[in-house]
């Protein structure tokens, strides 16, 4: 059992805040979805745990229901597949840390990390980063790159050219297409530079409907 004195009160408050704002814990709707928040580990672009003791994936209710529907579609196609979530709601203070850590000019940086001053869909709880897990083998599908690979190999927009040059395999592209198919079928919007990132709506629409989580 975790001693309450070991838990950072900031993130207890965050979970309480999220529930008060009406956000939904993904696994409370579908326990088959796996959650591995990379920014809650040291296996990320900054090499440190940015979430501390906060390890649950939250979304606004409508995006959460969309995700459940997409996972159901995935299971209709492959009963042993399920979603594996890298990130969902992300407080803006964490967005700022990621923005500051990325060693790219601002005009290049926005391809990978939304400007925290403008707010990211993640900051509203309206975007999710994910891949697909084969529960039979307990292996992630081969998507050619890991999460947060900041390079052209992760670009959905370049897949045809990368395939032609032999830098992506047919299977890797098929795996990405499967993920995109089930996500876009329920209304998610793809990213042209990150195969793992999906938004439930535009940033302008999110700003009208939701509040940023600081």
Structure in words:
The protein has 214 residues and is of the alpha+beta class. It has a single domain (4-209), classed as 2-Layer Sandwich (Muramoyl-pentapeptide Carboxypeptidase, domain 2). Helices cover 37% and strands 13% of the residues. The strands form 2 sheets. Strands 2, 4, 5, 6, 7 and 8 form a 6-stranded mixed sheet that branches. Helix 3 (61-77) crosses helix 8. It is globular. The model is unreliable at 1-7 (pLDDT under 50). Its cofactor is Zn(2+). It comes from Roseihalotalea indica. The active site is at residue 194.
Enumerate how many helices there are, as a single number. 9
- Determine the oligomeric state from the structure: single chain
The fold-level CATH name is: Muramoyl-pentapeptide Carboxypeptidase, domain 2
Helical content (DSSP H or I, runs of 4+)? 25-40%
Keywords: Cell wall biogenesis/degradation, Dipeptidase, Hydrolase, Metal-binding, Metalloprotease, Protease, Zinc
EC number: 3.4.13.22
Protein name: D-alanyl-D-alanine dipeptidase
Function: Catalyzes hydrolysis of the D-alanyl-D-alanine dipeptide.
